[in-house]
Amino acid sequence: MSCTAIAASIDYDKGLDAIEKSLQTDINQAIEQIDAALSSESLLTAQQHSRLYGLLSAKYIYLGDFVEADKALDKALTFNPTGEVLTNIYLFKITVNIAQRNYQRAFSLLEENFSRIENYQDNSIKIKSYNRLSNVYLQLGAYDEMLRISQLALSLNQGADPRNQCFSMLLLSVAHLKLQHFDQAETLFKDTRVYCKDHGLPLIEIMSIKGQGNVLFDKGQYAAAESLYLVALERYQKFKFKVEINEIQSYLSVIYFHSGDYQQAKMFAQLVNALPNKPSNMQVKKRVNEVLSLIAGKRGHFDKAYQYQVVASALAKQLLDEQKVKENAYQMARFDSVEKNRENTSLIQDHELLIKQKDLVMKEKSSSIMISTLLVGLSVGLLLLLVSAWLQRNQFMKQAQRDGLTGIFNRRTGQEMAENEFIQAQTLGESFSVMLMDLDLFKNINDQYGHATGDWVLKKVTHVIGDMLNSTHIFTRMGGEEFAIFMPKQTENIAADLAEQIRSEVANINTRFSGHDFTVTISCGISSVDKNDLSLDPLIHRADLALYKAKHNGRNCAVCYNDTMKPPSSDKLTIIESGL
User: Fold this and answer.
1) φ and ψ at residue 301, rounded to 5 degrees
2) Rounded to the nearest 10 degrees, how much is the dihedral formed by the CA atoms of 320, 323, 327, 333?
């Protein structure tokens, strides 16, 4: 590299350092600096490219745009970053996946990151990872673990890195608040506020001010909390930190309601209630809908009060379901981790046993070949036993989720997975469709040709349909000859097109390979999400009504149910051309 190129590289590193600092002090300036860097990115090294796109993702995280943040991080990874840059990208990835409810992926990234940095000598990288782990425990509600990890991060840092110190102090303060150690939390938030201000980290200073407000809010000291929230809100506006701004506004709506200022309470509540239906907004929208319900009740508008309370209850249910999804993902990650550790420990013990036995053989100087062979056999046997146990565990887990004959999801697993996807679709305002399918006159096949032929038909139909589906479809055997396809993000028209393709392919199955010559046909009922749907059950019910109509219309056809206010005989059921 020439001297000029080296100098330019150093200048760009300084420029990226300046962007990182601006993200903590002035978001508008940071955005301008990022745009300028992107305009000349062809001059950057691979490592600098990774840093730039990592900083771009941080900007999107502040703005609450987690989809764009994820894209920026994916772009950063294409430049094969190393060391601290790679660690930062992993940590941002974890944050983004949690925000997007991809909890299993977040835990996997966390585990990958810890495995990667285990042998690093740089404590700063480890402390950053511990701080992110504390944040994960906060999301899970595991506050004791959060307290333990944040204390560990502080003991490792011991003030060496002010930025890490600030984050660790803040997380420790939050842990004490969540555990209702109010006096300790208030003192820690004050200490964090002073420390971060002195070390030029205003964003964490603002978080500490808000934390002090949260302590007073939880203690019911609303007037004192209000003044702190207003200071934090004004300063957050400079950073355009949407998530934090929305949360403070929701708290202010509660405070003004309790102080009797219903106009101010309603103003802040409506600001929050107008937010998009995204996972990051569910908690604050629940809080303000409860406030709006109380205000409407105070003013005698009981119909509105009821409507707001219904929305608040639906959001509360979604939050509870989301917490269950988090906990299940976390438990699965822990289970896999424990299994891996157990297998590794067993293998290490086997290895140590082998060494000890070999030493004994050498000392005794007798039967060396026989004993060595025996030990190798023992080691191989134990290893095979471990592998067998691991494969058996996976097999049992798969068997518990799959239908024994067809290999697709059984009813319990399929509906649980679909319910989780449905909650996410409702939260994001996305489409969701359900298709119920039933093999026509299947009993006649069993009666005429025997149950073995019937099983052949079920497996063949499952194979034909499975080849037509993508990874987002949840293909489920509901029982007997009835199947379901749950389709997240799919509109009714897309579901109807797929139903017609399935109907046509099934009708074209060559049954001679079963040993008999007959025709297989299938009927389909389709329904799509309605704004009043609060769970998956109404969609399944409407799809079942549509399936009934398909059978009534002569079978071998697909029917879309598009009027939830009419009984099954409604003429609003649209019949799709069957090709008969």
Assistant:
1) -90, 75
2) 140
437, containing H or E segment: strand 432-439
CB 559 within 8 A of CB 549: yes
pLDDT tier, 570 (very low <50, low <70, confident <90, very high otherwise): very low
Q: CA-to-CA distance for 254 and 265, rounded, in angstroms?
A: 7
Locate the domains of the chain by residue range. Answer: 326-401, 411-576
Q: Are 442 and 457 in contact (CB under 8 A)?
A: yes
Q: Which of 560, 523, 139, 161 is nearest to 323 (CA)?
A: 139
User: Token pair 């479809």 is at which residue?
Assistant: 473
Closest CA to 94 of 333, 316, 272, 318: 333
Encode pLDDT of 513-528 as tens digits. Answer: 888 889 999 999 999 9
Residue 382 parent element (H or E): helix 368-401
For the chain, the straight-line distance linking the first and the last C-alpha, in angstroms and rounded, comes to: 73
**Domain 411-576: homologous superfamily in CATH:** Reverse transcriptase/Diguanylate cyclase domain (3.30.70.270)
The encoded tokens of residue 404 equal 């024994």
Q: How many CA atoms lie less than 13 Å away from 169 in the CB half-sphere? A: 26
